[in-house]
Amino acid sequence: MNAIKNLFSIEYPIIQAGMVWCSGWRLASAVSNAGGLGLIGSGSMHPILLREHIIKCKQATNKPFGVNVPLIYSHIEQIIRVIIEEKVKIVFTSAGNPATWTSILKKEGISVVHVVSNSKFAKKAEDCGVDAVVAEGFEAGGHNGREETTTFCLIPYVGQTVSIPIIAAGGIVSGKSMLAAFSLGADAVQIGSGFAVAEESSAHIEFKKAIVNAREGDTKLMLKSLVPVRLLHNDLYLRIAEAESKGASKEELAHILGKGRAKLGMFEGNLREGELEIGQSSALINHIKPASQILAEIWEEFMNEKDRICKLDF
Fold first, then answer.
1. What is the mean pLDDT of residues 180-192?
2. How far apart are CA 120 and CA 111, in angstroms?
């Protein structure tokens, strides 16, 4: 039995990332209903709104789903309280120290997974008692590690360091890339960009179209001196790039970024001034489809490629 399928009681070892402004209850429930694991992204929600999304997700699916929690969130205590009160059984934590909340969540019978960008943090997460780690490589969208370690290097690095299951993330958008991740030691994959364009994603339609129209080289990891984030090219991106080339300070970069940029771009559809967080794999995404179709196509290609390789005469 696949370790992640067994841990979460899901049909396919495919997990939808908990993306800010994209991952509401509609997307999470659609992925879970299709046999994967859907995640509600709490990073763009106040506690009251998160509770609403959890309740609606329960009504929309009887399959397992979880909540992604950035640990640097200002209302983290209230967020954790909502998760416990609503009896969510799976939590993915990121952007912070897993030692703070893992034991508390585990005492409530919650499976905990932590997102890491290097093997050092993976070992730390394991020592804190998490059930699995997401090894997220440089290719991923949104907030990323400063090390710029690619997914293909990160999976074996982490595999040499921990004994718990590994979920690969970053640049995985097809069955072929999923199979490659498994060959390097992954037990499952987490997909963000591929599901950001799903019909059920809460991202603005203009942002979805921008992802579909993205080409190779249209994203770059920016703001490494502040909070590293992979962005799609636009006017905001160009202003940040120019400031960084001139040696702008953290304070100057923070002033340019301002507040609410991710919501402005990803949720409200301002493609010029908004923060457009998306991964390198966006250049491989060509259509807006239902989440169930996206998952089914990935799994079918994964199985077909596995069979094809097994038949090769080496």
1. 97
2. 21
Q: Residues 6 or more apart from 156 whose CB is under 8 A from it? A: 184, 185
Range 143-171 average pLDDT: 93
3-state helix, strand, coil in the chain (%, to 5): 45, 15, 40
Return the CATH number of the domain spanning residue range 13-202+284-302.
3.20.20.70
Residue 291's alpha-carbon distances to 18, 167, 294, in angstroms, are 14, 20, 5
Global pTM value: 0.95
Which residues have C-beta within 8 Å of that of residue 187, sequence separation ≥ 6? 2, 3, 4, 13, 132, 165, 166, 167
Segments making up each domain of the chain, as ranges: 13-202+284-302, 205-281
Between CA 254 and CA 263, with CA 258 as vertex, the angle to 5 degrees is 130
What's the CA gap between 142 and 19, in Å, rounded?
8
The two three-digit tokens of residue 30, written as one number: 């659609």
pLDDT, mean of residues 63-74: 92
pLDDT digits (tens, 9 = 90+) for 1-50: 699 999 999 999 999 999 999 999 999 999 999 999 999 999 889 999 99
